[in-house]
Design goal:
With about 180 residues, the chain is mostly helical. It has helices at about 5-15, 20-25, 30-40, 45-50, 60-70, 75-80, 85-95, 100, 115-125, 135-150, 155-160, 170-175.
Amino acid sequence: MRPLGRTLAALVAVLAVPGGVGAQAEPHRTEYLGAVAEHFQLPPDEVTILADWDIDTDEIPAVIFVSRRAGVSAEALVALRRSGRSWSELAQRYGIGAAALHVPVRDEAATGALTAAYDRYRDTPVGEWPSMRLSDADIVALVNVRMIAQVIGLSAEEVIRQTGSTSSYVELYARLRR
């Protein structure tokens, strides 16, 4: 095969891999995945494998969190997500309520993108949290906030406050790490 043919074949192979070129182009992705591995005490290679599946990088901490809490394989959760199941539906299915996802902050703390979720937490008696449903975005955000705060060593309040000014948790992690 001529060099151009080999290059084209290699490019086609990379594009065919889930999480291929687009995922690799995201800055700070490797550092974020390392933080996920550290937080969940997993070998970095295991987290990298999850990142190669067809799932948003920001959702990887939610996959691991729900997998561990529910006693279900990460592969099964990714398959369910790919089939159209929402995080809210999966959390309910596996008995992971709002109480398990809650990240404590002071009532007067700024809550960024999580303002609606924290308003619901504040307005709902703690005893009713198990039946409270959170949105997919809230579930992904709460798991990421906890992970980022613990890995970087910041308060959860500081991380939550910053959630309103970011388009991804990979980006937020990189910004807060500086």
